Amino acid sequence: MTKTKTLLASIVAVAIGGCARPTPERQIVDDAAAALGGADRIAAVRTLVIEGSGTNGNLGQDMTPDATGQTFAVSNYRRAIDVAGARVRIEQTRTPNFTYFQGPQPQKQVLGIDGDVGYNVAANGNATRVPNAAARDRRAEVFHHPLTIVRAALDPAATLSNPRTAGSESVVDVTTSGGLGFTLAIDNGTKLPTRVVSMTDNVNLGDVAIETSFADYQDVSGLKLPARFTTNTDKTTTATLQVSKQAVDADAGDLAAPEAARSATPITGPAPANVTAEVVAKGVWWLAGQSHHSVLVEFSDHLTLIEAPQNDTRALAVIAKARELVPGKPLTHVVNTHHHFDHSGGIRAAVSEGLAVITQKASAAFYQDAVARAHTIAPDALAKNPKPLKLETVDEELDLKDASMTVTLYRIAGSGHGDTILMAYFPRERLLVEADVYTPGGAIAPYAENFLENIKKRNLRVDKIVPIHGAIGPFADLVKAAQGTK
Ligand SMILES: [Zn+2]
Description:
The chain is an alpha+beta fold. The chain contains 13 helices and 26 strands. It folds into two domains: 22-262, outer membrane lipoprotein receptor (LolB), chain A; 276-483, Metallo-beta-lactamase, Chain A (4-Layer Sandwich), CATH 3.60.15. The relative contact order is 0.10. The structure holds zinc ion (ZN).
């Protein structure tokens, strides 16, 4: 070998060495991998089984829009992860710390994700497939763990970008080989992952960040793994977990989706709306057909809808039905009974159709925020057709009244279901519209006694309950439910 060739070889060697120096984004991932136990150790892990206890939040269903006091205590928690296969199965028991509409008894839950198939297993063993949107969230949740996200980030097929420093953390964006996007943050001192964030669409909240924070790292089979997890959805803590036991490469059990779920037709969106119309009295229609009903009210020169529930699909179909029933009068207002997500999920659609919203005053800020929020991940009717919010609020009582119709809205005081719930009283027709505080025909009626007290306190004369859930029923049935004799 000549001297020239030796020199050339040296330059090539230096150049290769230079190429091997990690980029800043790769350095963050490499640091995290080294802190967790090394890339080779991470790659060798087949399963992780985590046991513990914690809490689940009650997002969008608490006493007021800002309240966070309602939680489920989580016990017997077990999460089995097939690390390479990105399959997870969670078993847990949830016990509400509040007056829950399904009652106070603990509920066992089994939920999982296997590829594109998300599933739940009921207490009787029946497995059902969850909608694709929920399955996507579960696929993302698999990577809300230091081991799985760093393993995915080490994959040469992953894309790393946007390295940055934020306070005491270094942060990098990770797009997995499967196309899922995350933000990974590590501690600048220990280099251990501190949190993972992913974005998803929520019907009510629009674009939301789901963030899982990690703490209390412990040594497990040559790895550092966290023993404390806290998950926030937007601004609300939706889950906490304190690990009592975790094992690497223990028997994870069968993590394949049950056949009933695997072979079920994928659910790609909300169920098509089926809106039925039943005349309850002159100028009053009950718009039912599925789980959440609405009531249409005809005034002298306009129409008002009570409730735009669930989502765009339901709310837009109900609005169309209202306009079809009374084509000669404009539909101008929607009364929202309360902020709970299943009852407020169609409000943005109603705003997009030009309706003014009437709700209890403590929910005003909630609707201002709901209408202002970004819905870019899954643009909804309001995102496609932006309109300003027209909001009218009720404190304890408000009359909606003209020559042909009178409806009085009352706040239901002291209900265990919520502090801001409105009921709608029709004095002439002796009807009362309510949501959630009483479901005619329901198995249990934990809020009925308080509801009846509210009716008596107001001296309302009621013949029929026209519910947002369940069938129209006589007042006498409510009395029986409230007394626990039915
Ligand atoms: Zn509710």
